[in-house]
Write a structure and sequence with these properties.
Strands 5-8-7-6 form a four-stranded antiparallel sheet, sandwiched between helices. The chain has a two-stranded antiparallel ribbon with strand order 1-4. The longest helix has 24 residues, at about 120-145. It has seven helices and eight strands, in the order ααββββααααββββα. The chain is globular. It is an alpha+beta fold and about 260 residues long.
């Protein structure tokens, strides 16, 4: 199938060029501590090339209905960022050919299924997981590139302004080393083909809500509610479960707290 080839090509590209990509990320981490911020030219974060770069949306535009007003709030400095401007560099081939085909495949899956009477097969479940893991990786890269600048309703502090948001998170103890480790973990997920142990970590639910909802905790979980397809997804990135009921119970606690 075409989707197999696209996913395999993406895995091979990322695995083969991981060293170059991580070097760029390391340079940006160190450069962001300097007021001069001398970092190199942009590269694609999926294959490492520096030519024909485009802007890859971290969340595909169709998920938030291409609305320019919808935004999320960063839990580090509590500033808002619209989804349509939340992008990372990707070359034209990775963006339009590989990632674009994966997104087309996912939308066709969502459009075809009616959760009242049908469900996804294991092959499709695995590919939904792969798609969500790509989103996690893109968020990891985004937070390395975004600067703290200042907290909302707080004074500007010059020595904090250039620090990447990724290392201002309490969960990783303000450590650049741990921020790098999290990106490597996200890369490893993408480049690992088998998703057998992750299937119970994905919950696909029917929703009647008319509004798009999203929340996400780095390297832990993601929730996406996509009204166009009457589908809500909850996925645990790190945790595996013996059955979906246990995963559902854990997800319910999180949703009740954050929704």
């Amino acid at each position: 199938m075409i989707i197999d080839y696209k996913l395999q090509t993406l895995r091979v590209n990322l695995r083969s060029n991981s060293k170059r990509i991580m070097q760029d990320i390391a340079e940006r981490l160190l450069g962001n501590f300097s007021l001069n911020n001398n970092v190199g030219s942009e590269i694609c974060y999926f294959c490492g090339v520096a030519e024909n770069l485009t802007k890859e949306h971290v969340l595909p535009k169709w998920t938030f209905e291409n609305c320019t007003q919808k935004f999320f709030t960063t839990d580090v400095n509590y500033t808002n960022q619209t989804y349509n401007k939340t992008t990372i560099p990707a070359c034209r081939n990775c963006n339009n050919n590989l990632l674009g085909n994966i997104e087309t495949y996912i939308t066709k899956l969502f459009n075809r299924v009616n959760l009242k009477v049908t469900y996804f097969n294991l092959f499709e479940i695995d590919n939904i997981i792969r798609w969500l893991e790509l989103i996690e990786y893109k968020f990891q890269v985004l937070e390395i590139r975004r600067k703290f600048t200042k907290a909302k309703s707080a004074d500007y502090i010059p020595y904090l302004a250039n620090i990447p948001i990724s290392i201002m998170r309490e969960s990783i103890d303000y450590s650049p080393t741990k921020a790098m480790a999290q990106i490597r973990t996200a890369q490893k997920r993408i480049t690992t083909k088998s998703k057998n142990n992750n299937r119970n970590s994905l919950l696909v639910l029917q929703t009647k809500n008319k509004d798009f909802h999203f929340f996400h905790k780095m390297n832990e979980f993601i929730f996406l509610e996509i009204p166009e397809y009457k589908i809500a997804l909850f996925y645990f990135y790190e945790r595996s479960f013996e059955d979906t009921q246990t995963a559902q119970n854990e997800a319910k606690k999180i949703v009740e707290n954050l929704y």
